Amino acid sequence: MAKGKERQWLRHQAVGELDDTKIIDSLTGEKAIYKRRGELDPQLGSPLQKPKRLRLAVDVSGSMYRFNGVDGRLERSMEAACMVMEAFDNYEHKFKYDIIGHSGDGFNIALVNSDKVPKNNKERLEVLKIMHAHAQFCMSGDHTLEGTEHAIREIAKEEADEYFVIVLSDANLERYGIPPARFAEALTINPQVNAFTIFIGSLGDQAGRLQRTLPAGRAFIAMDTKEIPQILQQIFTSTMLSST
């Protein structure tokens, strides 16, 4: 469903340019006989004029590889990426997506370009192999904040019906001295972009504590791959039902 507003003639206005179709009405004393250019909300169910835009920022840090044996976090990150690649296959006209990685090596590691998305299982597997190898050999460190902010800023530069940024993280921010309030700030730097995080790994109650301190509805926890499709559906549904 389209969310983007389209510029068109707004009729029945009290000020503006005289509407030729309202000339007769002016003789009867009608005041709303003008038209002007403006933005109009699309009608319910109207087709998309521009595709929706999604950027998936996946955690491929060293801790993802190191603690994969504990809770399967790297496998879950790879499976989430695979789900997105499969779900939007052949829907490029409606949903344009790309996938970037964040780790100790950087905050904008190109994995899937929106102009060249994987078209088959072999190409999707290559992306997953890159994610696995990167997590295994990257330097220690964390660029979750930089990756989140960069993804939000960059995606908003493109024309789209609606913007989504989903950040996958193992909730290991405490180790690098990143306060939850700073992450909350990163997720909300642009109100035009619907930004969310899914915690797919946690040592102890790390993810739960982080979720409770982030803005309501912005953070999810998925310790089982089966939960990820429902979370993605919830994210997209929540924005469609919102009035903003």
From TrEMBL:
<dbReference type="InterPro" id="IPR002035">
    <property type="entry name" value="VWF_A"/>
</dbReference>
<feature type="domain" description="VWFA">
    <location>
        <begin position="53"/>
        <end position="235"/>
    </location>
</feature>
<dbReference type="InterPro" id="IPR036465">
    <property type="entry name" value="vWFA_dom_sf"/>
</dbReference>
<dbReference type="InterPro" id="IPR039891">
    <property type="entry name" value="VWA8"/>
</dbReference>
<protein>
    <submittedName>
        <fullName>von Willebrand factor A domain-containing protein 8-like</fullName>
    </submittedName>
</protein>
